[in-house]
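Re: weekly structure request thread

Next one in the queue (299 aa):
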Amino acid sequence: MSGVTGGLNEPRILLDETFTLGECPNWDAANNRLYWADILNGALHTLDVETGARKTWKFESELGCFGLTDQGRIIVALRKDIIFLDPQTDVRMPLARIEDGIHSRTNDGKIGPDGAFWVGTMDDNADKQAIASLYRITADGAVDEKITGFKISNGLAWSPDGAKMYHSDSRGPWVNRWDFDAKTGAIGNCERYLDLDDTLGRPDGGAVDMEGCYWSAGVSAGNLNRFAPDGTLLLSIAMPMPNPTMPCFGGPDMKTLYVTSHQENYSAEKRAEFPDAGKIVTLRVDVPGVPVHRFVEAG
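Done, posted below.
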């Protein structure tokens, strides 16, 4: 484990481990621990960033996304099933199931300011169609479809005050911004925030900092991009791999970014050309990130 060194905005490899489709980094501030998923291998990973201690949980299907709960458990979105995992005992309990057709699976997801688990889906076929949806899942097992009609749901993040929700379609490729009610989870007044392309980077996972700026993994361009609230590009940081997938903020001061990446469908030649593809990057930034909320369990 290389740790964080160097100056601001300078990416470093965190771990000398490679993941096929690294995604969904989550910072556990209470335990100084980073979690992330390897979607296609059905694996949930964790790292104690101080000691280097590692642990992995395996599942029977793809693992699209997950979040931490207010009771110390992890809520996990498998291909269709939403379950709880107790990381101390490995006990797993079902909560809900997303029924939206055989050609889709869960993808990007995050816990919102409303304490619900927001989970997007994607078309699993090579020829992507606009069959994906975004769902809001609560502790009673209710699954509420909030938006539909896109190819790959991605980019979920919320403004510092919780009043705006960001959401993208990686194959749009666009990012929309919605008004958000943190008490009820209601959304409205959608506006186009960004129209992107392969050169700057199609929008994959996202995060927001305390200045209200939106960080987007430019998965097609090897960039990590920071946009102002008005959509102005403020910063584009080259990553040491072609396909970064999602940023998250962490560390004691929330000024460390962790960025996952993938090497899905890489040939042996491409893996040799880009040996850091599929690894996790870390970098220091000067503005702290907005902490991600925890899922509110019933009772």
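The first strand starts at residue 12 and ends at 13. The mean pLDDT is 95.
Next request, please.
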